[in-house]
Amino acid sequence: MKDLDDILANIEDQDRGSEMELRNPATGQPTGLKLTVAGPDSLTQRRSRLQMSDELAEIARADGTVSAEEREKAAIASLARCVLRWKVVHGGRELPCTHANIVRLLSVAWVREQVDAFAGDRANFFPDTVVIVTDRAGMGFERRGPMPDGWGGK
């Protein structure tokens, strides 16, 4: 990125989203379930965060507190608004990408953790920097953006 135009163009790119594939939390194997998620600097994520703040303010008790359950519901709904489209199969059929269905999927803790981590990692939204990385244990995976110290790309 060499000037403001590059930065602003990246925000637009982040609004188009980047695709991730959910991985089995026990084996790390791809599940075939894919979601396209807006990036952390996108207007989509910004609007979602603001909406979540408004929702929490509306449901706050007189003393300003909000229950943990309500905060979790608001966080899931906010993350769901950042999922732009998906390829999710349920019962052998493609499941429509609706807010209610996304919330249902994100209510599974390991799914939410993966989507949230992906959505918050700016490196996932710089498609011109995709490389295959081998970690110290020799496991290979795709990584976008700059590599952490001690990791080498192939």
Q: How would you characterize this protein structure?
A:
With 154 residues, this protein is α+β, with helices and mostly antiparallel strands. The chain has helices spanning 4-16, 43-59, 68-80, 99-106, 109-120; strands spanning 18-23, 30-37, 83-87, 89-90, 93-94, 130-134, 140-144, 152-153. β1 (18-23) and β2 form a beta hairpin. It is globular, with a radius of gyration of 17 Å. The protein starts with a helix and ends with a strand. Residues 146-154 have low confidence and may be disordered.
What does the average pLDDT come to? 87
From the alpha carbons, calculate the radius of gyration and give it in angstroms. 17 Å
Total of DSSP H or I helical runs spanning 4+ residues: 5
Q: In percent terms, what proportion of residues is strand?
A: 15-25%
pLDDT < 50 runs, ≥5 residues: 146-154
Structural class designation: alpha+beta
Q: Give the SSE string.
A: HEEHHEEEHHEEE
Read across the widest sheet, the strand sequence of neighbours is 1-2-3
- Describe the sheet with the most strands: 3 strands, antiparallel
DSSP E strands, number: 8
Q: What is the helix fraction of residues, given as a range?
A: 40-55%
Characterize the overall form: globular
Termini gap: 23 Å
Pick out its properties:
154 residues; three-stranded antiparallel β-sheet; globular; alpha+beta
Quick rundown:
This protein is of the alpha+beta class and 154 residues long. 41% of the residues lie in helices and 23% in strands. It has helices spanning 4-16, 43-59, 68-80, 99-106, 109-120, and strands spanning 18-23, 30-37, 83-87, 89-90, 93-94, 130-134, 140-144, 152-153.
